[in-house]
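Narrative progress, year one. The postdoctoral researcher (J.K.) led the effort to move from monomer predictions toward full complexes, under supervision of the PI. The following entry was the first complex the group processed end to end, covering 880 residues in total.
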Amino acid sequence: MLTDTNKIDDEQLNRPLLEVKGLRIEGLSEKGWQEIVRGVDLQLKRGEILGLIGESGAGKSTIGLASMGYARDGCRITDGEILFDGIELSSAPENEKRKLRGTRISYVAQSAAAAFNPAHRLLDQFAEGPVDHGVMSRREAKEKGRALYRSLDLPDPDNIGERWPHQVSGGQLQRMMVAMAMSCGPDLIVFDEPTTALDVTTQIEVLKTIKEIVIDRNVAAIYITHDLAVVAQLADQLMVLRYGNLVEVNSTGQILESPKEDYTRALLDARSRHEKTTAEINNPESLLNIDSVTAGYGKGTDVLQEVSVSVERGRTVAVVGESGSGKSTLARVITGLLPPRSGEISFQEELLPPALAQRTKQHLRKVQMIYQLPDVALNPRQRVRDVIGRPLSFYLGLQGKECERRTIELLEQIELSETYIDRLPDELSGGEKQRICIARALAAKPELIICDEVTSALDTIVAKAILDLLQRLQHELQLTYLFISHDIDTVASIADQVVVLYAGRVAEQGSKLAVFQPPFHPYTKLLLSSVPEMKLDWLEKTLSTREAQAGIAREVKITERGCPFVERCPEAIPDICVNDRPPLQTPSSGHLLACQHSPQDLT
Amino acid sequence: MSNFLKLFSSAPWSAKFGMLTILAYVVISIFAPFIAPYGETELIGRAYEVWSDKYLLGTDNLGRDMLSRLIYGARNTIGLALTITLIAFVLGSLTGMIAAALGGWVDQLLSRIVDVLMSIPSLIFALLILSIFGTAMPYLIGTIAILDATRVFRLARATAMNVAVMDYVEVARLRGEKLGWVIRKEILPNITAPLLAEFGLRFCFVFLFISALSFLGLGIQPPTADWGSMVRDNATLISFDDITPLLPAGAIALLTVATNFVVDWMLHKSSGLKDVN
């Protein structure tokens, strides 16, 4: 039976929908069963959002799933009550719980791309739940799906459901997932990091959807995340967790204004912007020069179009843009994995051969790369000793004792102790793995390190520590970084120079100060305004701006002519922007801006 | 050694049974001359003698001791199957990994050759080759090894493909590592689990294949004892309600089952599934 959420009397409203008392959960590890959630209480009413925050391993997801009466393989609920609308879930029989899940309680997973079955159409997957639970017929379910797509502002709601999961963008897929969770009109939705893998602009569109759903339909929601700024936009109550313990629980305003615990303060601190001041370098020496590079995959269109970037020794140049803007392609061109179609790359005044196979060992040694996902950047079968030792012996010919001594030295540089030398990647945390990747890059004594979204997969606190480490290493070793990121906040804290890339073209570039201050390229303005701030009502304010209304929830499209940003630009001049390439403006020396408007108009 | 014992004791009963059975087969085939009461090809009595104290399992169609031939048969059949499987694996996994790591035309060429070989029914193909070139041991080994290598190639290529797209392989390529290193250090360690499991299965198939060929008269040639031809030679006894000819068949079946028990367990272990209960 469905609860009509619109007609609930006051008494029902005030009674908590979900009540968890003294929840204890154990997980199976090599050392046997160990407690991973240690006595957590929570209460949730209809129309309320509870934010669960903490770094990985805090037990957030485990608690989220437990509130559906579910324990993952290798986990068991050992103690505590889980009362959902008067039903005791911890002791309810499995088929009872199965009836509730999907109908009255639903779940939105972190990676929508992984949660959808690529072999079925979206609307068919939407209809699966309601039909299986016997709530609706297939026809009704599909009708409802289309109605939900419409109310979630998805483009072409009548037909989008006939597409396959790979045919819609990441943000749309995540909203599809929210629609799917809404299919049976649930009373409680558990959101498990639904925006963590998304760009800032896409994140806004998903956040907006979630907020509307919870308010309009009067459901209760648990929102799990490691990012305080995101959850601050949604949650009424925040619950800070660490190692399965409750650290602090309070209203969102209270936590932002006056956090009581040190750990909460650390979380707040990790998100607030620490801008790096650019030090003066005498006689700047050009290290890497990318000259008018055009590149693409196979026979496809040019993913990069006439991109020119130069990197000075000892500096950090950040490349910013949404997914699809060509950031990673730029890295592939520099490393030689993707030879450019035209244009040249020179390194230390010497022309680099375009393809990897033509480069010498010394060329390769000088440019090292650090990847986004440390999990797949480290071979799971190689110990730290081999990971760091290989570049040492390969490039520098270090063997035996000498190699080990240098490995330990490198470990110390990345703030890990000697004892890590014989560990396998499985025995390291995400942050430690990324440190090992940094050490591997350092081992080659590189001139330039390309950092491809190195902090995007990490928790805020861990990410901050990695950024601090990179900065310290830059100081000590005079390293040069090409820092690729979609996160303007991260860029602000590490970059000296910023290159804003959009659809394979440079929209704006210059010193960080010049780029982050007016005059702005309209795209830079959109990116800057999309970074969540640790303020209440930030979401509403941002959504009401002209940039957001024109710019969010749109895909990056590569165009052959005109300005690629035209469809999302609030300042677009009809006809001209569609047809003519934007001219390069130079508001100040070293600051380039590709726009039809003069710098005076772009504030 | 203590690690091995620990691993053994943690195994489920089926895997323990499998390992013990395989161990017994290995011991028997190594020490065959000491265990067998008579020689492999020795004529010791009349044909088709019944089970007795003298001839524990009777004699075969030529009057050779059945038990002795069973024991020697273990040696020949298992030895041959093992050799063939090893060759098939070295050949198949190496080419498979090369195809995955290099891609492009190398991959196309190798894959199409394998497709052609796989499109011919393997038994027919083997019969064809063996009747053209004769049934000498090198031809027998070569033919079956190449046929089986195609299956190993497919598995090795598919699993290596998944590994080859990982960032750590890209790191190695960006470092300037040669193909040999990438295959040996980056790819191989990550696909050993499925390859080992396939080894167990493939070994059984090879084993059955040899027996089938022997049964048809194109496998191991007389007077060498092997289980496949022993079934054929003594098949007439079945009509006299005597189960003796089924004993070599049973020996084959038991080893197959035992190997699969061990393989299942290894697959389960490498899949990383946790037993909650």
